[in-house]
Amino acid sequence: YECVAGNMEPRGCFDHNRNRLSLRQNYVQNGYEMTCVLGTDGFLTFEISACAPEGGRRYRPGEQWDNPSGRFWSRCTRDGPFYLRMETGGCLTKQGRRIELNSQEVENEIIWECQRKWNGTVTMCPVGCIHEGREYFIGDSWNDGDFVYYCRIEAGRTHKVCIGCLYENRRLTDGDRYLKDDVVFECTVRHD
Q1: Residue 189's closest CA among 132, 152, 150, 158?
Q2: Fewer C-beta within 10 Å: the chain N or C terminus?
Q3: Distance in angstroms (rounded) separating the CA atoms of residues 94 and 52
């Protein structure tokens, strides 16, 4: 403040390091841009004016950006009337498209879902298989002709695997036998 003709006039603020800032001047602290403003009550205060993740760029509420790792994207959102929050919006596909958290995408007959892991990171995870245009999730099985298939996860990808045979609407697993016209048949799953 400065005394002008007997009145206290607001001139600026001090940042957390006690540096002087003029009115409407800003600085970055803890990932957010702080701006020196005159509050509605006539006193100087700081307004959180932008999100400022590492890298120097600043984002206003509603703006989004890709994380430099190329794995996820974030957005700057309002958190009440006075605060902003940086939040992870979702995952980035291998092609760089943004996918919202808990949303799915199909690529090469694999259903991928953007998931938040226990440690807070987000990543695209395989959750299912596509077979003849239908979705099957990990653990699902289905009949196709004389065979039974299963969707499983292996080495970070989902796979359709044949797990058995179908005879007279009965599911048979590898090694099961059945009798037809006085002949014993065995369901054999080849792993090739």
Answers
A1: 150
A2: C
A3: 26
CA of 185: how far to CAs of 162, 174, 190, 191, in Å? 18, 12, 15, 19
Residue 42 is predicted with a pLDDT of 83
Pairwise CA distance, residues 40 & 135, whole Å: 56
Start-to-end CA span in the chain (Å) = 81
141 forms beta bridges with 150
Lowest model confidence (mean pLDDT) among 31-35, 48-52, 79-83, 113-117: 79-83
CA dist 60 and 49 (Å) reads 7
Q: Give pLDDT tens digits for 102-116.
A: 999 998 889 999 999
Rounded to whole angstroms, how far apart are CA atoms 130 and 85? 38
**Mean pLDDT in residue range 48-70:** 90
The dihedrals phi and psi of 71, each to the nearest 5 degrees, come to: -105, -25
Residue 67 has pLDDT above 80, yes or no: yes
CA distance linking residue 123 with residue 113, whole number of Å: 8
